[in-house]
Amino acid sequence: MTGRLVTIGSKGGPALRKGGALPTSSLLQLGSALAVIDCGLGVTRGLVEAGVDLRHLPQVFITHLHSDHVLELGALLHTAWTTGLRRPVTVFGPPGLAEYWAGFMASMAFDTALRVADEGRAPLEDLVTLQVIEPGTVLNDGNLCVSALRVDHPPVTDCFALRFEGAGRRVTFSADTAPFEPLAGFARGSDVLVHEAMLPDAVERIVAATGMGDALRAHLHASHTPAAEAARLAGRAAVRRLVLHHLIPADDPDVTEEDWRAAVAGIWDGDITIARDGLQLIF
What's 51's DSSP letter? Predict the structure, then answer.
């Protein structure tokens, strides 16, 4: 096995509904290199189900600080620590990551101090290193090369697409973005493009379900990519497989996989995968 992608949580947005999908998180394996991309609710259980030993938690990448991408980061690191984590973990993320982490540690100060004193654990803060993502090369350690591109996700300024290269494979994650032409060049030749996708015809049902009205409608249309546009970009990037991920909506019982395939029919005729929670793709 050279490459493995697990879409742990496949929905866009933070809301949870009975029987619905979990917010966004993924596990990527290229050869011996492992990476967690985004940490929405459910990521910890999803990683365990995917075979990750939390005592050896791999490096983590956060594309931006919307809650559906970062809410369970602290809980993941803390649970790995209580499971027996002893080696350092690096978390790569946008500006503001340090403030998130400081807030989480402050909220858990009673528990972490008690466990250090009572159970003999090394302090959790000593095991976590934060590295701020900037456009360009983020990591190059000989096994894995990671590059970042700032994408268009208003009103969030620091939101990054990420390209992973290792073991002869290339995988690009769009992160959350409106249609963004530079992403085609950034993803060019990828074995897999993991791109967010929205069904515009379903936006009104999302607005009705949330009761958020005009503000949410405007945000969705301004900040996300219709599935058809993701397919067009995949074609311009000449990628081998398109994975539609961070689905908007992913928890509407009236929307099926066939609706997503219909949205790209006649635009993308290559290999395509529609993400769902726990889906595993070998490539």
Answer: T
Q: How far apart are CA 237 and CA 192, in angstroms?
A: 11
DSSP state of 63: -
What distances in angstroms separate CA 191 from CA 151, 187, 230, one per listed residue? 20, 9, 16
In this structure, what CATH number is given to the domain that contains residue 91?
3.60.15.10
Rounded CA separation 98/77 (Å):
14
CA distance 121 to 28: 29
| DSSP letters spanning 104-160 | HHHHTHHHHHHHHHHH-PPPGGGTEEEEE--SEEEEE-SS-EEEEEE--BTTBS--E
Number of structural domains found in the chain: 1
- Measure the CA–CA gap between 74 and 76, rounded to whole angstroms: 5
Q: How many CB atoms lie within 10 A of CB 119?
A: 8
- Which domain does 168 fall in, by range? 3-282
pTM of the model as a whole: 0.96
Give residue-wise pLDDT tens across range 53-112.
Answer: 999 999 999 999 999 999 999 999 999 999 999 999 999 999 999 999 999 999 999 999
Q: Label the pairing between strands 271-274 and 136-140.
A: unpaired
In a 3-state reduction of DSSP, which class is residue 58?
Answer: coil
Tokens of 61: 């990448």
Segment 154-166, tens digit of pLDDT:
999 999 999 999 9
Please report, as a single letter, which amino acid is at residue 121: R
